[in-house]
Design a protein that fits this description.
There is one protein chain. Strand 2 and strand 3 form a beta hairpin. By secondary structure, the chain is of the alpha/beta class. It has a 10-stranded mixed beta sheet, with helices on both faces. Strands 1, 2, 3 and 4 form a 4-stranded antiparallel beta sheet that branches. Helix content is 33%, strand content 23%. It is globular, with a radius of gyration of 23 Å. The protein is built from 14 helices and 18 strands.
């Protein structure tokens, strides 16, 4: 633990602020909360929460500490599986990687195939190499995937959820551009991800000689999975300062399946009484209320099928699936994605909007404890200095042609030269140096690996 209290550059100091333990079905989860503070003013500059799960508290804590001890490589390098996807996937992924690189965080990307790209290369839409990579990193960022039609291929997204027990699908929807049909939308939908009608237990029954005379599907709702996802929704509300959880069901008709879901929800709500308000709505009414008075909703939790439908509805309130990020959360793994399709008809034309995947990447940063970087990405994305469709300054285009990319400057952010090497990078107020030069500068001056360079140097503000 000696590294945790070491001065990083004579002015910033990194210390462990807290250690938290939580009992989970998979074992004991230990989190070590690290903070980077200004040694003179005491101001908090950065926070991270590496965690690990093991059979005992001591083993979990040792594993969590082991994630932050190695300083021979880049400090706090995050290993992440990257699946660019199909159609516009590679384009929006490249744009998102530019944004993440500008944060100054250190990532080790393991590029893997999925969808049609994987079928063409390996004959399998989800190759074992991709699954092995996610098992190793426990974290993935995924572009849109196309599931081949016919041929017995299962849905890639459903397969990933089952393989890694990603029990909660988190779909936030927030108003970005004011003045639209709906203003002030800020809703998070938490969808049960593994059960219900999506378990794939279906069959045909012969009727009067017709082998397809009747079709049957089985819906499974278990107490264990329902309790897990509902409790996750309440804990999400607590962690993010939310005020209310609304449970959506159809218990007036589906009395056993969604009736059980509602029963468990009411039981858990009592544990949060006085902290988080709770109400429940029949799905018909919930769908109507979302377009009549969406401001009444905060966090919604519901079953698989209803969540699939309502999550797209709330995305429509803020502009559609092109602005809709998603996170699939499990106890030991998580996959973050753009939920829109692969749009092959516009692939390669530079028309794709990377917003959904950029916002999904911000959710991923939250998940790995990089809240400051996540908030900066969201804030900078929601209020760019120049419109994505606006013209750049007259001198910049001629003197500095854009880098070769399907999306040369994500969301129209102006590019500025690095003060050391002159390479042009998106100006997101992180630092006057590009990430590579910042790393070299820190090693030369302090001998330490890079520690969040945009917080160590002075921010560059255009016109200042």
């Amino acid at each position: 633990m000696r590294m945790l209290a070491a001065l990083t550059n004579g002015r910033q100091v990194m210390v462990p602020a807290a250690v938290r333990f939580q009992a989970m079905p998979a074992g004991i989860r230990a989190e070590v909360v690290l903070v980077l503070a200004d040694a003179r003013s005491g101001a908090l500059l950065w926070r991270s929460t590496p965690f690990a799960i093991a059979a005992t508290p001591s083993a979990a804590l040792a594993a969590a500490v082991a994630r932050i001890l190695p300083i021979s490589t880049e400090f706090m390098t995050h290993s992440i599986t990257l699946i660019p996807g199909d159609g516009i996937g590679p384009e929006v992924t490249d744009a998102t990687l530019q944004v993440l690189a500008a944060t100054g965080l250190s990532f080790a990307w393991d590029r893997q195939l999925g969808g049609m790209a994987a079928v063409e290369a390996t004959g399998d839409p989800m190759p074992e190499a991709t699954l092995d990579s996610i098992r190793r990193t426990n974290l993935a960022l995924k572009g849109p995937l196309t599931t081949p039609v016919g041929g017995g291929f299962r849905s890639v997204n459903v397969a990933l959820r089952k393989e890694f027990a990603l029990f909660a699908n988190v779909r936030p929807a927030k108003t970005i551009v004011p003045g639209g049909r709906f203003d002030g939308i800020d809703i998070v939908l938490v969808r049960e991800n593994l059960e219900g009608l999506y378990i794939g237990q279906e069959r045909y029954v012969e009727v009067n000689g017709d082998p397809h005379g009747q079709a049957e599907s089985v819906a499974i709702v278990t107490r264990a999975n329902s309790e897990r996802v509902i409790r996750y929704a309440f804990e999400y509300a607590v962690r993010h300062g939310r005020k209310k959880v609304s449970l959506v069901h159809k218990a007036n008709i589906l009395k056993f399946t969604t009736g059980l879901f509602l029963e468990i929800g009411r039981e858990i709500a009592k544990e949060y009484e006085g902290r988080i308000a709770f109400n429940d709505l029949i799905v018909d009414n919930a769908a109507m209320q979302l377009v009549l008075k969406p401001e009444q909703f905060d966090v919604i939790v519901t079953t698989n099928l209803f969540g699939d439908i309502l999550s797209d509805e709330i995305s429509g309130l803020v502009g559609g699936l092109g602005l809709a990020p998603g996170g699939n959360i499990g106890e030991t793994a998580a996959i973050f994605e753009a939920v829109h399709g692969s749009a092959p008809d516009i692939a390669g034309q530079g028309l794709a909007n990377p917003s959904a995947l950029i916002l999904a990447a911000a959710m991923m940063l939250d998940h790995i404890g990089e809240q400051v970087a996540a908030d900066r990405v969201r804030a900078r994305w929601s209020s760019p200095r120049s419109s994505p469709t606006g013209s750049a300054p007259a001198t910049s285009a001629a003197a500095h042609p854009p880098r070769s990319s399907a999306v040369p400057s994500p969301l129209g952010w102006p590019e500025v030269p690095c003060s050391d090497c002159g390479r042009r990078v998106p100006d997101i107020d992180f630092n006057e140096r590009c990430p590579d030069c910042q790393k070299r500068w820190r090693r030369r001056v302090t001998g330490w690996p890079v520690v969040r360079p945009w917080l160590v140097g002075r921010s560059r503000r255009r016109g200042a």
